[in-house]
Amino acid sequence: MVFRWVLLASAQRGSEMKISVGESVLELVRGDITRQETEAIVNAANSRLAGGGGVDGAIHRAGGPRILEECRAIGGCPTGRAVITSGANLKAKYVIHTVGPVYRGGGRGEAELLGSAYLESLKLAAGNDVRSISFPSISTGAYGYPIAGAARIALNTVVAFLEESGAVWLVRFVLFSEADLKVYEDELREIGAD
Ligand code: AR6
After folding, report:
1. In what helix (H) or strand (E) does residue 127 lie, and over which residues does it extend?
2. CB burial class (10 A; 0-12, 13-18, 19+) of residue 23?
3. CATH number of the domain residue 106 falls in
4. Contact between 47 and 99 (Cβ < 8 Å)
5. Which CA distances in Å does 56 have to 7, 41, 71, 76?
6. DSSP code at position 20
7. Cβ(139) – ligand 1 distance below 6 Å
8. 118 C-alpha to center of ligand 1: Å?
9. Roughly what angle, to the nearest 10 degrees, separates helices 178-193 and 147-164?
10. From the CB of 141, is ligand 1 less than 6 Å away?
11. How many secondary structure helices (H) and strands (E) does the chain include?
């Protein structure tokens, strides 16, 4: 894949990286996704939309019970797809719930399903006039996807989408640990060097 990007900022101690893709911005930050002020945040959900641990638990705790009520009304979401609810008590107006694959060695379509989870989330955002969106690192916690491979898929999918579509102006990856942030930074540099 060939694309152009411009490095806008890279803090020396690895705390933040920002690039421009077409008219849009892609950021990598360390933090808690529930505190983001982007119009939408993405939840790494399960296909029953039943809530759980990790980022899913944090989002439901911070957003309040209305999010689970809306999830129950939707009913479920297949792996690789996405659905949208309100942000309830969150700063974000919307939560986009997507379901990444459980990693079972890599031979069961996990890469395609992970790319699809990001792409479907972005399409749903664009369809709801969402201009700014924050993603967690989908599938790399309880679902066990090795983070370097997952980061590469996540970043390639987002960059390709931003190159094609001007609908979303800001995509922010919110990584929970310094180690995860470093992996995403390294993968983004490699993508840019391809
Ligand atoms: N902000 C940003 N990232 C976070 C936060 C947070 N507040 N909390 C955790 N992470 P996981 P998965 C990171 O397990 O692998 C749930 O039970 C975490 O460190 O949340 O897609 C669901 O209900 C990790 O890097 O999601 C599903 O059953 C990343 O978020 C299942 O887990 C993803 O870890 C989904 O598993």
Report:
1. helix 110-127
2. exposed
3. 3.40.220.10
4. yes
5. 31, 11, 12, 14
6. E
7. yes
8. 15
9. 50
10. yes
11. 5, 8
Whether the CB-CB separation of 44 and 56 falls below 8 Å is answered with: yes
pLDDT along the chain (194 residues), means of 10: 56 69 94 97 98 98 98 98 98 98 98 98 98 98 98 97 95 97 94 68
Domain of residue 74 covers 4-193
Pick from 192, 194, 178: nearest CA to 7: 192
Take residue 85 and report the two structure tokens written for it: 């609810």
Domains contained in the chain, number: 1
Distance CA 49, CA 30 (A): 26
Neighbours of 107 (CB within 10 A): 7
Task: Identify whether 180 is a catalytic site residue.
Answer: no
Residue type, 55: V
